[in-house]
Amino acid sequence: MSSGALLAITLLPLAWALVARRLRASPVTGPLVMAAAGVALGPMGLGVLALDVGAGEVTGPLTVALVVVLFSDAARLDVSTLRRSGRLAARLLVVGLPLGILAGTLAALGVMPSLTLAGALVLAVAVVPTDAALGLAVVENERVPAAIRQGLNVESGLNDGIAVPLFVLAVAGAAGEMSTAPEAITTFLTVIVVAVVAGAAVGTIGIRLIELSDRAGWSSASWRSVATVLLALSAYALADVLGGSGFVAAFVAGMALAATCRGPVEELTRGSEAVGHLLTLLAFLLFGAAVLSPALGRITWPMLGFAVLALTLARLLPVAVALSGARYSAPTVLFVGWFGPRGLASVIFAAELVDGADFADAEIVATAIITTVALSILAHGVTAAPWAERYADVVRRHPQGAPEHEEVTVVRSGRQLPHQS
Q1: pTM
Q2: Architecture, CATH, for domain 3-420
């Protein structure tokens, strides 16, 4: 890596860190700034950041960033709200995700008829995972009901890992290497079950070891924060070794840590949260320089059309079906439907296709994925803060019996504090 590239990679996140709080409620977000800077410094711009996707200079850092962010987000979940937000997330995952894949496949075939059905399916699976990092103004805005915020957070934490085996199977099908349906279903279920078990084990055992070390006086607060970051990576690595989804394992490990921790979780997760913020900035800088910049010349109008559909109708309609009968208001359904930004998981899928997927439409599919993520960074970044505030104002006027106003009890460190969503 050149000195100029190293300087850019250090100074740009530093500059954002100095103004992040000031810009928190503005349409200017860290991922948007970093992606734009990456394009400006990439091969289509100044040429300062010249990275090789195929050499692991992009997929490796992106994977580490996503693992730490998933773990950190899960560890910050309020366990007491999981029952309510879990029902919302379950609807989005069990009903919304498969319908989203179906809608994305139809949208791809509709605007890009030259794609094969297999290629359209790969594209739909790659863009269905959501990314809470692009909507921090939503999930961190305490005026938005807790069940809605955490439901979106749980959805984004788990659909990344669920999409991984589906993506592998879809690519295999596009390359003519598809297993039989029973084998595919067995493989998918095994990947998820192994990930859940591995993640739960790492999170539960890890927090016990951290607490034992703390009581014995063997570690300091700063090193305990480092240990939580390493737990995230350990969960991913263990699941990967055992044949499970590392992303699901990282998120489940964070949830297990939060659920079984006997002290304040915030102290332990402060380090992983800070590392997650930094890695997210670096990930979108790399995305702009190494993925988006080289793809700009290949983006076509049909790809833009697919990106628009993927972020609107192909997300909104499945969400509306998934939430039907749950008594959520129309503003809530629209809000949940809109805030499904596409981010790091989709970028990783695109990078893997660029790295050498062996099917005819691979380059077109990869470029369409990149286009969708780029549009999402812009659209969701600009709307996250103002629309969250607007939604919070609207939902406050809902009747007290509405599900958005359900009272929960926040449990922390053996104390119970009343909390109104």
Answers
A1: 0.85
A2: Up-down Bundle (1.20)
